[in-house]
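cron nightly-structures :: item 1 of 1
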Amino acid sequence: MAKQQKDVVAKYLKHYAEPESVVGTRLSKLTDHLLVIPAHNESATFLEGIRPALTAAHDRGQRTVCIVVVNATEASSQRIHDTNQNLLTSLKSHGPTARLHTFNETPCWHVETKHFDLVLIDKNSQHNRLPKREGVGLARKIGCDVALSYLHAGLSRAKFIHMSDCDVQLPDDYFTMTAPTSSAAVVYPFRHVPCGNTVLDEAHARYEAYLRYYILGLRYANSPYAFHTLGSCIAIESRAYAGVRGIPKREAGEDFYVLNKLAKLGKIHTAKSSPITIRARVSLRVPFGTGRATRELVKDINAYRIYAPKLFALLRVWLLALGGIGLSSPDKVYDIVRRSLTATLPPQDFKRLDTALQAIQAPKALREATTRSTLNQVRQKWAHDWFDGFRTLKLLHALRNTGIEDRPWRQALSEASFCRSPNTDLDALLSDQGQTFETCRYLAALENLN
């Protein structure tokens, strides 16, 4: 089994890894932890955010390699290219620096500091920049491929490849995380912290409240994809990383899509650690995500609307019916599901859910699931692999298109039974305009109860 698992990594490195992965074989120091950070238009002050975790690991007698992929595309402005070059120059001044690349390879360096090591990958200089539309996803993949190569060469004791970003502060206990052997990935707890700009801070708090509301809604519906997908808060088990062929080379959403794949290989475990803190800021680095969402929110902060709680109630009914496909024959399986839905829902809601399921081609998928095997366990696995986090989103959107309109964010939270706690007056909390970050903390505490 161990040889087979190692072969998965070897196959990935041979056929799917980025060319920069060879750098991992050129590092000689044995380490305990691996951390990958993409950097675009950043300054070296980001080190102050990750330093607490790196120093704490050093104090425990452990060494960390932090792989920083400084990146831009040809479409980036000259100002960004200059900022990136200044970052590389600054990072190389942190200790003795050794060149890792050979002629015609991406420029890479190893920097040895007192408490940790840096591997710098230059995807910013001319002729080395990222292709258009392969921004942060490709940057993360390059860094993670280097980490995997390093692991495969037997130079690190790490089990997980950690990913984060430049706008975080990692807690002291970041690298003390443990996870069940069945885990394909770990998601760390997080919280946004104010930056002092009132409007921007409020936008970030409202977006975080939405993220937590969404996860609580998925948990209420008993979805197996109820986990956060923030790229700054993920650690991936090395063999699972190879099994899903690395990080998708997307300019945004790579964190969502890689966890969506990993959830089909193993568990997505939530770390029992102090939260990663994320600084509130606007970002245009990617076409969607927290930074972009915040920017849009700031434009008209009082117009912010989110999914209606009813969508999650209908999702819950669908997932319950999905669990009952049992030994149904392929030509009758959706009829059996429809009868279950009819018995559970009032006519209007049944029509909405049936319309939405037809829109995402659920009948066809259930027929395929039941032709895969006569074993219910196999059918369930196939059905839930098909109805993954992405199709969950598609169903919610299809349900919304049936006339279930988004709600103002405070109204949605107030109406949602899954956001209620007997120990806190949620309505009083929501009525206080200055308590949005406190609302986030309240929702985070509800997550921890589940």
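cron nightly-structures :: done
DSSP finds 17 helices and 14 strands in the chain.
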